[in-house]
TrEMBL record:
InterPro entries: HAD-like_hydrolase, HAD-like_sf, HAD-SF_hydro_IA, HAD_sf, PGP-like_dom2. Its cofactor is Mg(2+). The lineage of its organism: Bacteria, Bacillati, Bacillota, Bacilli, Lactobacillales. GO terms for molecular function: metal ion binding; phosphatase activity. It comes from the Bacteria. This is HAD family hydrolase. One of its GO terms (biological process) is small molecule metabolic process. Keywords: Hydrolase, Magnesium, Metal-binding. It comes from Vagococcus vulneris. Signal peptide: none annotated. Gene3D superfamilies: HAD superfamily/HAD-like, Putative phosphatase, domain 2.
Amino acid sequence: MNTTIIFDVDDTLYNLMSPFEAAIKEMYPDQIADEDMEELFHAFRFHSDDLFPLVETKELQLEKMRELRLIKSLKQFDVETTSQAALKFQEIYEKNQSQIVLDKEMHKTLRWLRDNQVDMAVLTNGPTVHQYKKINQLGVKNYIPSERLFVSQEVGVSKPHVGVFKHIEHTLGLPNTDKIYYIGDSYENDIVGSQCAGWKSIWLNKYNKDMSAQYYQPDYTLHRDDSLLELLKKILVRN
């Protein structure tokens, strides 16, 4: 039975904080200290993950969700903003995302997996059109065919819900969950979700979060300087 490697996109295949930080510095140049930028970024991602399911159920418009996630995040740092400014921030943020590139380690990893004919796929949360823009900008289709790319809005359910993982199993015909490895940066969405689905998980713990007290634990944890490719080579040899 073949091993299948499935990737998240945001902050996994590329550095999501870079376009975010550039947009914040352009819109709010004197209001967020450099030492607070990472914490603001995490707040932004938390509110994004918290609000996006309401977009999928049509309880909240996408534009309103994008406005609210920034307003809520900035408020934690006592920074007030307007709806108009939040939408302007989104324009700048999207412009910056149109210039994203694959992380160097990910480029090397995807190329090696493709050249060695390892089964791969992508599963990402987010609006369909927006996520495919990023997928295209990153050149993911050079490594993974279109029919193996899955976006939560298109599927109709988002991570960490088990349903989106089971949808991929069914669509790709993957009966053995012990041979599916999911790689992502979000403990809540990627690790908890894939573990609940019975998949193996590789957590890219870029920000050294301590989740050791939590019930769900990743099968493997990598930090900033660890090599994903070397880990995958070891896994594939064992499998």
